């Protein structure tokens, strides 16, 4: 009887090594570019001013409101003297009108267009980084700024209400009394629920920055579109269209403040924001990839 020996595998164990090395270089290039984008942003006066403004504006607004009649025609406006937790909810409703798009477009709307304005694309592309790496780095830098600015605004708004008005129980949207500890968690959740909209507006600002190549349009465009969406959302008889607007999820946190919370608008809003974000970033990257940047 003859025994046939099984030949060991002759596959090259290092066959995937070039792909791994390329992936590491790709990540390293993106990290380096991201680092320098953050350095450039930190050096901008408007970026520093925006962060400082997010920190000092809420307490100033609270101090002004303390000496005035409460704005009873706005959600939670009539309760701002009765509970400190009503203050950040009032401010959250206010920034939804135009502050939220402006908060992110000041950076995201300019981060690509500024390279066109200064003619520095060719210089950037000769620094061993690809268009994809530049796009990822600038997008991450814009998102980082948006997250920092929004977090500063949220923390300042909540702290201002609690420290300047107090930790009184909060009245829910269905008339129920919410204890201070529960109210604090719900206020934080309400601000967190609006953050996906900020990401969506960041992506929209990036798209306008890439396509228009104009910093002014990249900054002002999202604010104008945000106001237009808010006005359109207030029109009756457009139920389906209203659900697809990027501004509609800004009201989704209302379901958290009822006696029996409902989360359908939150889930739907998250899907809408994800769709807006993905679509805008895909279109922006394709536009950047197909452009002739050799003249910049």
Automatic annotation (TrEMBL):
Membrane-crossing segments per the record: 47-65, 85-108, 140-163, 183-207, 219-242, 262-285
Record Pfam families: ABC2_membrane_4 (PF12730)
Keywords linked to the UniProt accession: Membrane, Transmembrane, Transmembrane helix
Annotated spans, Disordered: 1-20
Keyword Transmembrane included in the entry's annotation: yes
Coiled-coil blocks: none
Feature: compositional bias, Polar residues: 1-15
Descriptive protein name: ABC-2 type transport system permease protein
């Amino acid at each position: 009887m003859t025994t046939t020996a099984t030949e060991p595998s002759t596959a090259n164990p290092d066959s995937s090594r070039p792909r791994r090395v390329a992936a590491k270089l790709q990540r390293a290039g993106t990290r380096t570019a991201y680092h320098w984008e953050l350095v450039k942003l930190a050096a901008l006066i408007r970026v520093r001013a925006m962060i400082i403004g997010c920190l000092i504006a809420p307490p100033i607004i609270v101090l002004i409101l303390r000496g005035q009649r409460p704005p009873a025609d706005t959600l939670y406006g009539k309760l701002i003297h009765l509970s400190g937790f009503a203050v950040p909810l009032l401010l959250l409703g206010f920034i939804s009108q135009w502050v939220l798009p402006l908060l992110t477009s000041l950076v995201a709307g300019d981060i690509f267009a500024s390279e066109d304005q200064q003619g520095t694309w060719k210089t950037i592309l000769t620094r061993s980084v690809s268009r994809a790496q530049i796009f990822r780095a600038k997008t991450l830098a814009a998102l980082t700024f948006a997250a920092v600015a929004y977090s500063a605004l949220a923390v300042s708004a909540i702290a201002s209400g609690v420290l300047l008005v107090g930790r009184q129980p909060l009245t829910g949207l269905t008339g129920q009394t919410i204890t201070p500890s529960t109210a604090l968690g719900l206020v934080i959740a309400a601000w967190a629920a609006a953050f996906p909209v900020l990401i969506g507006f960041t992506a929209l600002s990036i798209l306008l920055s890439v396509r228009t190549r104009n910093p002014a349009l990249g900054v002002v465009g999202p604010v104008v579109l945000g106001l237009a969406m808010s006005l359109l959302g207030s029109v009756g008889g457009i139920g389906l269209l209203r659900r697809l607007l990027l501004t509609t999820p800004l009201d989704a946190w209302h379901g958290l403040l009822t006696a029996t919370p409902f989360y359908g608008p939150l889930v739907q809003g998250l899907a809408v924001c994800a769709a807006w974000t993905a679509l805008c970033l895909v279109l922006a990257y394709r536009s950047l990839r197909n452009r002739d940047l050799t003249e910049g």
